[in-house]
Design brief:
Elements (H helix, E strand, L loop, with lengths): L1 E6 L5 E6 L20 H4 L8 H12 L7 E5 L1 H12 L6 E5 L11 H12 L3 H12 L4 H8 L2 H9 L1 H12 L15 E6 L4 H13 L3 E6 L6 H4 L1 H16 L2
Parallel strand pairs: 3-4, 4-5, 5-6
Antiparallel strand pairs: 1-2
Helix pairs in contact: 2-3, 4-5, 4-8, 5-6, 5-7, 5-8
């Protein structure tokens, strides 16, 4: 979504939000609200957020780079990376995927995702993210409650609630099952933290079984945020795969 600005006849700045594609539809919201007040309606009128679109974007960017290219993805970014590699296997020499939440045997969000969406559309992004962390990520409820007790944390989560919920829905839209990756014979390192939620590690095991050329690397003492808590450890793991692929 982009923000459009134009000057009125009297010099005032007029702002509008631009989203989706196709024939133009101009919505004028009611008084007492702003341009986001019709989000619940416009969401049904535009093409939904799609992992396949993200995958296509990744392939397009890779096409600008001199090969060989090592593709690194984390969380939902790793899901998009997998789909990009499936879309154009020749674009990538190797994959480094940190806990992709693939719907291997069950959906990622499922009914919890519907509850998170309802909370968000009802004007409560904080509750939407609380549902996400507790029932989708599956962090212990006490840990979630402790985090959300901090107003700065609540504000931060609220700021990216829309993107997170869209991500969940886009991943679930892929459907369950990963048999389509059986022919993706690209050297792949699947990374997990030994403190990560059990379902993420189980999904990683499923992916390792589906991919013909994959290995699992476990980061001791880490969860889903090693990029913040142990960046040097994560960098070493990437360097190791790069050394194998690029023969460094």
């Amino acid at each position: 979504m982009t923000e459009l600005h134009v000057s009125a006849d009297d010099g005032r700045s007029i702002a509008a939000l631009d989203d989706g594609s196709g024939p133009n539809l101009l919505v004028v919201h009611p008084g007492g609200g702003d341009a986001t007040s019709w989000d619940g309606v416009t969401r049904h009128l535009i093409d939904p957020h799609s992992v396949i679109t993200e995958a296509s974007d990744i392939v397009a960017v890779a096409g600008l780079l001199k090969p060989p290219v090592l593709l690194v993805g984390h969380s939902s970014g790793a899901v998009a990376a997998l789909e990009a590699a499936l879309l154009d296997p020749s674009a990538f020499a190797g994959l480094f995927l940190y806990e992709p939440p693939m719907p291997t045997k069950e959906l990622i969000a499922g009914t919890a995702g519907a509850r998170a969406r309802a909370a968000f559309d009802g004007g409560d992004p904080v509750e939407a993210m609380r549902i996400h962390m507790r029932d989708i990520v599956r962090m212990p409820a006490k840990v979630v409650d402790a985090r959300f007790a901090d107003q700065h944390v609540r504000a931060a989560f609220s700021a990216y609630a829309a993107a997170q919920i869209a991500d969940n829905e886009a991943i679930d839209a892929l459907g369950t099952g990963v048999d389509r990756f059986a022919t993706l014979d690209i050297p792949t390192t699947l990374v997990e933290g030994d403190l990560s939620p059990a379902h993420l590690r189980e999904r990683l095991t499923d992916m390792a079984a589906a991919l013909p050329n994959a290995r699992i690397v476990t980061l001791p003492g880490q969860g889903h945020t090693a990029h913040l808590n142990a960046p040097d450890t994560l960098a070493d793991a990437i360097r190791d795969l790069a050394g194998q692929i690029f023969h460094l």
